[in-house]
Amino acid sequence: MADTQQAHEKGAEHAIEVEACPSTRALELVASKWALRIFPALENGPVRNNELLRRVGDGISQKMLTQTLRELEANGLILRTIYDSVPPHVEYRLSPLGESLNRTLMGLDDWVKTHWQEMERIRAAQVDSE
Asked: Which sequence ranges form a coiled-coil region, renumbered to this chain (predicted)?
């Protein structure tokens, strides 16, 4: 009984450590479905809101785009410029920190392109063996 209690407490401690881990928090931010689509949409310079909405693609609402952009901006990954024009407009671009992260994400994308078929074959073989 004491061993079970200690194991439970140790598991709870590990869960707290994972939640507090900067890597976990960063991955939760940048690995979201929409963030992963926003980074490449901004990699060639500033983009206005409506163009960004088109580039990110089907399925994202204006509300979700705005929410994701605010979160990325709050973490220093994108920059928002508000132009005092008539009508006023806003542009978004990657910050230097966001550009650095985007290069890393491009490496991940390259890895996936290289290994996706292998992963598909393994998954299909496991399904066939069940």
From this structure: none
CA angle 98–104–105, rounded 5-degree value: 85
pTM of the model: 0.75
Identify the residue with better confidence: 68 or 31. 68
SS3 80: strand
Backbone angles phi, psi at 40, to 5 degrees: -65, -25
User: How far is residue 46's CA from residue 68's CA, in Å, rounded to a whole number?
Assistant: 17
Domains in the chain, CATH or no CATH each: 23-128 (1.10.10.10)
Compute φ and ψ for 92, nearest 5 degrees: -120, 145
- Name which of 111, 103, 109, 83 is nearest 42 in CA terms: 103
